[in-house]
Amino acid sequence: MMCMLVHMTSRDAAATRLRILEQARRQFARHGYTAITVKGVADAAGVSPNLITRYFGGKEGLFLAATRVEIPVEDSFGGDRAELGARLSVSIVRRWSGESGDDPLLVLQRASGERPEAAEALAAFLDTHSLEPLHRYLRDSGLDDAEARRRAAAIDAFVLGVSTRRRVLRSELGDPAELQDWLSTVIQRLADG
């Protein structure tokens, strides 16, 4: 009986922690870091602010937990370079069209103007999970190292710029199919040089 109670309590704690993180991501994504309060997140999650302190240590810890990003970008780098734009655009538009409040990458983008550590975390994430894998892919597809690095940097800057314009500055994404076609064309041109 005691074992069952401990298991249910830990499961409830995990569910509560997840609910808090979901609300934190939504609020940080919509409003940035400064405007968000622990009490506001707690109220939205239906918990006591003390639980946020208990699970995350406060607002800073909550922000760090809410901005952990994992994107399987390598999935887009398999296959022929002639189809890179199409593969990347599908992945990008799917992510951007999803639940924006649950996207830790959007949270980091919005907070990067307010918090130097958010800007550094975003830059480090993009270097590790976007720029470098793209650079390796282009190099492995037959480009020399310097040219592969230039093209990867151009694609990375283009996608970040479009993301900033359409997501951070709160412009509408527009029609997802049209956006995907446009991104595919431009990314492919950049990949092809």
Description:
- By secondary structure, the protein is mainly α.
- It folds into two domains: 2-66, Orthogonal Bundle (Arc Repressor Mutant, subunit A); 73-192, no CATH class.
- The chain has nine helices and no strands.
- It has helices at residues 2-31, 38-45, 49-56, 59-66, 84-97, 104-111, 116-140, 145-168, 176-192.
- Helix 2 (38-45) packs across helix 3.
- Residues 2-9 have low confidence and may be disordered.
How is the secondary structure organized here?
Blueprint: H1 2-31, H2 38-45, H3 49-56, H4 59-66, H5 84-97, H6 104-111, H7 116-140, H8 145-168, H9 176-192
Helix pairs in contact: 1-2, 1-4, 1-6, 2-3, 3-4, 5-9, 6-7, 7-8, 8-9
Keywords: DNA-binding, Transcription, Transcription regulation
DNA-binding region: 37-56
GO molecular function, one term: DNA-binding transcription factor activity
Q: Give the uncertain stretches in residue-range form.
A: 2-9
Strand content: under 5%
End-to-end C-alpha gap? 66 Å
Structural class computed from helices and strand pairing: mainly alpha
Fraction of residues in helix: over 70%
Cα-atom radius of gyration = 19 Å
Give the overall shape.
elongated
Number of helices in the DSSP assignment: 9
State the domain count. Answer: 2
- Beta strands, count: 0
SSE topology string: HHHHHHHHH
Largest sheet: none
Mean pLDDT score, rounded? 83
Which key phrases capture this entry?
single chain; 193 residues; mainly alpha; Arc Repressor Mutant, subunit A; 0% strand
